Amino acid sequence: MAYQDPDDRLEGHYALLGTRTPRCCVPGCAETDPRALVGVNPNIVCYEHQHDAQSRAWLEEHHVAGRRNDPATVQIPGNDHRILSDLQQAWPRDTLRNPNTSPLLRAAAALRGFLDVLRLVIERTVGWIPALLEALDGWLRETVGESWWKDFPTAGSDVA
Amino acid sequence: MLRELRPVAVRAWTTTASAKTSAKQQRGGYVDLGPSDWTLTIDTETTVDVAQRLRFGTYQVRYRDRLREAGIFYEPEALTDLERETLTRYAAEHGFKSTILPQFIRDVYLRFQWKRRALVIGFNLPFDLSRIAIAHSPARPRGKDHSMQGGFSFAHTANKGDPRTQIKKIGPRGAFIRSATPSGREAAARNRARGGNIANHRGYFVDVATLAAALLSKKLSLAELAQLLGTATKKIDWPDHDTTVTAEYLEYAMNDAQVHWECFVALRDRYERMRLPKPIYKIYSEASIGKAHLEAMHIQPWREVQHDAPDWLVATLLETYYAGRCECHIRRLPVSGMLLDFASEYPTSFVLQNLHAYLVARGFDWHEIDPAELCAWIKQLTVAELFQPSTWKRLAVVVLVAPDDDLFPSRCRFDQPNWTLGVQRRVGGAPQWWTLADYVTNWLDTGHCAPILRAIGFTPREIQEHLQPINLAGDERFSIDPAHQDVVKLSVELRATMRHEADDTLDVVAAGILHASAGGLKNETNSIYGDSVEVNVAELAKPEPVTIHRPDGTTNIAETTHIEEPGRYFHPLLATLIPAGGRLLLALAMRLLADAGGEYVMCDTDSLFVAATADGS
Q: How far is CA B93 from CA B96, B244, B256, in A?
């Protein structure tokens, strides 16, 4: 039984921000994840820029396995911390809270925390590329033609 | 000649304090967050008795159109042990979920409809939603929002923190459906507390039957709609719903949910091609699509661009307002003959009077006209001149007339409780305002120029800024620039093109859709008239004072439980001139018939049933 459904929480974030396409309004900032944003549309900023404005550190201590399972922390950027904390809300309630300090649940929490970090790293580093490729393909089909790659100078590669 | 003393009624212009607040709220407006990428398609099967109690239902959950979950929910007490066993076994064998109704409500309906803001899809959705309710009551107004009063409120759980569903029927083809805001603080309220402007979550519902009627101008059964749209899955014919739940019956029900979805996708694709700004879940009729076209062209409503029109002037215009002329001329006698029908009578009236100039203008100016000059012009008018478009462009005038044995539209109670319209021979009584078109109609009929006491003419102001060209109905061949082209004229031309293409094509499905779309376009075009005269009535629990404005500038206060709020595209000048032009076109047809020695049996707005002569010619 999930503690709180992440998709349900996502809708709450959008409603709170007041838009389905939120973005940090600080010039040059590309943060669009609703879990890492605060304020209301159009005055939305990310946690890191909010911390900057408040002269607070942009790095935060994250309990990878959850505070109840392991006091050990790692330093991560504030925006990523918000997303990882939100992902923890999708863990089974007992795993996150571990009321009886079960070593198995502690191990499960460590694994879940590691997987969440892994997922975040993947999403943050290459997660944006598929959508870009799909959009670019659509644009090429519209502007060049349905088989745009036929005239593409592939230089001997097997792209086409 | 029989003379009767009868009271006449005219259309009044009223204002209220609450109505003005509402208009202000509409302008200020909260922003709708819109639905998420989730959809929930539901269908229910019920008993066939009067109670129509839920037996079981089917559902599909999709994310970005991909099926994520499908299942069957059921009312345990409405099924036998054997039926329940059949249902759960069928679900397990086919990989569907099976749940009892309360569990479906909690884990599927409220989870997706409410928490995830999914678009809820069904065919005759109000019926399905009412079947998954555990209680109902009359929908109550909330503050100054009376829009759902007269409808029903359905509870799906006993928990007051869960949203109820409000449903109000608005016509034979559609209903307003929305979620009532439950107790507790929703995210939208927290957004507003932080300075945001998000509207309360009202849910997102699409009744495929309503959407199809709006887009195709036809009320179709699910089987007919699937046939017309050429969906991959067709509805299975199931003759008897008063039957035991079997695997075949469940197969039929699961197939139905799929047909609902495919019909929705086909209609959504058609609507998206139109590139209209109105979201699909706000389409209730052809009029909704007509308004969406106006919004897409950035045509601002008259009430938002002209704030200096005095109430007495609006009252004057509304006093001249009448709908189509409908009468029976020869009664209780079998008569053979022919029905003549105008093609696009109201659009013709609109185009002839150049009313597009008023539609896209920043309002209109008004000026006094010398009655003597006007009378002199009318007295030299001939039937031939009334066939000249230039004559029609001078008809944007209203006149105050003291009728003296003249024929004018009159709203009376003719031996029945309702006020109905008749073109009556009027003598005496207080002077009354009519349109110049009705005055000319009287001239055609009687050859008499009734005394005009006052005349007011109208001219359009400058064209609105920021008007946007669009493709009519998404068709690139009919790109229209509202600043320079008449939208109604082009709509009629597009409709004619669609009908010709439908007649020429050998593809039966394409021809059916083209014919249906042409019908839809006709209603969308006519909706410009409907929008201009739209007045929504709110029924109040307690009477409220309203100010009744008169053309002479005087007012009086009355109390009523029925408050009228003009629609967004309300335009009193268009509202009265379009049908008045229609009545003049009909009068011209009558005159031509009379000049040819003919006789009409009956007429109705844009049609005339002409009696045949004795030799049948």
A: 8, 19, 19
